[in-house]
Amino acid sequence: MGMVYQWKSGARFGVDPQVAHECFETIREKNDGKLQPPAIVKAAKGKKSPLHSVFEWDDTIAGQEHRLWQARQLVACLVVIYETEEKESEPIRAYVSLPDDDGERSYCSVPDALSDEEQRKSVFQDALSGLLIWRNKFRGLNEFTKVFMAIDDLQLGLDLENEVQEAGLAEKVIQ
Predict the structure, then answer these.
(1) Is the pLDDT of residue 160 over 80?
(2) pLDDT of 106 strictly over 60
(3) Which of 44, 52, 69, 102 is most buried by a 10 A CB count?
(4) Is the confidence at residue 172, as pLDDT, over 50?
(5) Are 88 and 162 in the same domain?
């Protein structure tokens, strides 16, 4: 199965998305598997870096915080398409932001995140949080009642699943 990286529709960056992905993976490898905006900015500082032209380096225009925002946008806009002989997938985000053990956040490739049980839970919790924010933002629109009900059912199902898992852990501790 081949993977093709591209920018989200409407995103404009002066670097080929495949090259950006390769740079991100190199940065992750040099940083214990973590892809974080400060490391991206540091790697892009060199004028020969493929990522250099993406950032504003004139500090009278943009400081370090703006470059960090640019790094977040760069990662958030990279999508991947999975190609098989039959068809191509819809574009999906290449990386997701997850909390580290020390409470900071870093980016992890979607396949890596979904293959680790704790990270997978974190991805689903973030997704559910986003759905709840969206539901609250549009709760006055009756046209979305069925969608709201589906979100509520999903939340209830995840809550019940967590309770069952916690009960199972409690049983193991008691035994």
Answers:
(1) no
(2) yes
(3) 44
(4) no
(5) no
pLDDT tens per residue, range 27-86: 999 999 999 999 999 999 999 999 999 999 998 888 888 999 999 999 999 999 988 888
Sequence letter at residue 46: G
Which residue type, as a one-letter code, is found at position 94? A
State the distance between the two ends of the chain, measured CA to CA, in whole angstroms: 46
How many domains does the chain fold into?
2
Coil, helix or strand at residue 93: strand
Of 77, 94, 112, the residue that ends a domain is 112
CA distances to 1, 30, 49, 50, 97 from 22, in Å: 18, 13, 12, 10, 18
Residue 38 DSSP SS3? helix
Range of the domain at 36: 2-112
Pair 51, 26 in one domain:
yes
Take residue 164 and report the two structure tokens written for it: 């069952």
**Does 89 share its domain with 141?**
no
